Amino acid sequence: MVRLRDIRRLTRGLRFRLTATYATFFALLLIGVTGAFHVRLSSTLNTQVQDVLEQRWAAMKGYLRIEPNYDTGKIGALWYYDPKDPDESRIVLGVRSVYLVTDENGNILPDLEGQPSVSEAYKDLGVDSPKSIMADVRQTQATSRPLWTTRRSRQGVDYLVRSGVVFDEFHRAPYFVALGYSRAASQKTLREFSLLYIAVIPGSLILGSFLGWIMAGRALSPVRAAAQAAQRISSSNLSLRIPTRNAGDELDYLILTFNRMIDRLEGSFQQMKQFSTDVSHELRTPLTAIRGQIEVALFTAQTTEQYREAMFNALQDIDRLSQILRALFLLSQAESGQLVLQKSRLDLCEVVRDQVEQFQIPAEAAAVRLSAELPAECPAEVDRVQIERLISNLLSNALKFTPEGGQVMVTVRDAPGLAAEQGVEHIEIVVEDTGCGIAAKHLPHIFDRFYRVPSAGAAPAPEQGLGLGLSFVAWIAKVHGGTIDVESAPGKGTRFTVKLPAPGIGSVTMELASPPVAQS
Ligand code: ADP
Question: For ligand 1, atom 25, which residue shows the shortest CA distance?
Answer without folding.
Answer: 437
